[in-house]
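Q: Sequence in, structure out?
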Amino acid sequence: MSLLTCVQRFCERTNLPSPATVIGTTDTQVLQIKALLEEIGIDAASRHTWTAMDFTVPHTTVALENQGAMTTIAGGGWSYVKNMTIWDRSATLPVLGPLTGVEWQALLAVLVTGPRYQFRIQNGNLLVNPVPTAGLTWAFEYQSKYWILGADGTTYKQYFTLDTDTLLIPEELMLQGLRAWWKREKGLDYAEDMRMYETQLKDAASRDGGKPTLFLDQAGWGGPKPGIYVPDGNWPL
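A: Exactly. Output:
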């Protein structure tokens, strides 16, 4: 759903004049709705690791402790690295971390070298110990703060700039949030709408990307393993 379509549907549902455009309008009511929609998007984006905002980025190491700013390595939409996803693909080994400040300072103080690479993110920079060899291929997943996608399908952003910008967060959730936040802004009773928004947020987050089946009585099915396979049923005699 585009920005314009979202605002139009909300206005029709709320019995407000439906705008022909949002970006560039001088209608203060429409501008307020757009600003509220942006606040809701930022709120929802920060409360779940949405798969539509999850990216994998490669990194070629340099022979320095400081590998550079995360916003340069991952891109301007970087929010945080997903734990246990940094891998040295050249050596097929995980890069250990993130280390705490205490662990990092202890590592530097005792002058330990290796054997495995460890990392810490400090002041927005990726620090690695020991200093890696230049040219290694690493990769990791990160969560972006950009919840808006441009019509070109490649431009991600945090704030709307075009009527054709689309939402990466479920549109039904955004519309429900808009109802609650708009009523709150107008001084109307919004408690039930806010409760529905919170419920929809939890439901959407629980379904996003699928979830594994958890087994409390056994390890569960971990995929095919070497050996004789015995099916659960329908045994030919």
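The CA atoms of residues 51 and 209 lie 6 Å apart.
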